[in-house]
Amino acid sequence: MDLGVVDEVIRPLMSGKEAEVFLVRKQDHLRVAKIYKDAARRSFKHRAEYTEGRKVRNTRQARAMAKSSRYGREQTEAAWRTAEVDAIYKLQAAGVRVPEPFDYVEGVLVMELIRGQDGGPAPRLVDVDLHPNEALDMFHVLLREVVKMLCAGVVHGDLSDFNVLLGPEGPVIIDFPQAVDPAHNNNARKLLVRDVKNLTSFFGRHTRKLRGTRYGDEMWSLYESNKLRPETKLTGWFKGSDRKADTSSLLDEIAAIERDVRKRREALGIAMPDKPKQENPLRLSDGRVIQPLRPGQPTPKKSKRPPPAKQEAGAKGKRRRRKKKKPAAHDPLDDLLIIGD
């Protein structure tokens, strides 16, 4: 308000695991302001899956973020907040149905207010009852938006019926701070399949025609083979590859690399490192096997067993002591030597 971005804060709209959303006014226009929560107050889990592959232009920032220094953590937090702004601008240019962004100042994103049929803030998909035919049509509309997002290089990462608003012209997708780049994130396939599965599960409650479909796997397969386009028609049918792994060729390749390394070391006059001797395990009489320690492997600590409990005096099972035999009485005649009869 001090910077003139908004003129009035009317009321809060909702609070999620990432941010709080407020209804604000700028002159005669109603808009929404999204205020991101601090890292300590967020409940979003496994954030490393989403930040993999994200890049910053400044090399100093990249080094600090890799070292996780105090400055690096600040830059990581700033990058997490600006990820949604970058994703929304990219998706808007690709024709995806997302809110129009107006301004981003000091961690506050001001966007278009998606209105419902009554003119107020649009309801979420989870709060609406759908007819089976209406649910099927809306699913395919959202599926087409997911295809356009993937073609634009964005995977939502947390798409569900909670992150879709129903406006007068159709569904609008929101919440993109966890969006990932499918070309640089190894978790992109898993996140995309999960997003589509969430939509299929929700709309499948209203129509049985979606049960058993695999749109997410089909979509990713076409994307990997560079055959996915925004207008590509999907069938929902997908069969994974049943080709077995060629382990022999992999072993041949490893052997070829080892031969190449050996030749280079011999050309440089460097001997190959000695392979550690493989010691046979020690087998005990009771069947237990003791494996020899490898070089550098710490010695396992011995488990401390509690001492056996002492039995009370007079208890049953008490071990009896053996009585010592008394020596026979000494006979003086044994010392005499008898000669003759």
Task: Provide tags for this entry.
Transferase(Phosphotransferase), domain 1, five-stranded antiparallel sheet, 341 residues, two-stranded antiparallel sheet, single chain
Furnish the topology, listing elements before pairings:
Layout: E1 8-15, E2 19-26, E3 29-36, H1 48-51, H2 59-67, H3 70-93, E4 101-105, E5 108-112, H4 132-151, E6 164-167, E7 170-173, H5 188-204, H6 215-224, H7 247-267, E8 282-283, E9 289-290
Antiparallel strand pairs: 1-2, 2-3, 3-5, 4-5, 6-7, 8-9
Sheet-strand content, in percent, reads 5-15%
The H/E string reads: EEEHHHEEHEEHHHEE
* Helix percent band: 25-40%
- What's the Cα radius of gyration? 37 Å
Q: Describe the global form.
A: elongated
Count helical runs: 7
User: Biggest β-sheet, characterized?
Assistant: 5 strands, antiparallel
Q: What is the CATH topology assignment of the domain at 8-224?
A: Transferase(Phosphotransferase), domain 1
Low-confidence spans: none
Overall mean pLDDT:
80
- By CATH, the architecture of the domain at 8-224 is named Orthogonal Bundle
Going by helix content, strand content and strand pairing, the class is: alpha+beta
Distance between the termini: 139 Å
Let me know the CATH homologous superfamily of the domain at 8-224: Transferase(Phosphotransferase) domain 1
E-strand count: 9
Q: Which oligomeric form is depicted?
A: single chain
Q: What is the class of the domain at 8-224 in the CATH system? A: Mainly Alpha
Please state how the strands of the largest beta sheet are arranged side by side: 1-2-3-5-4
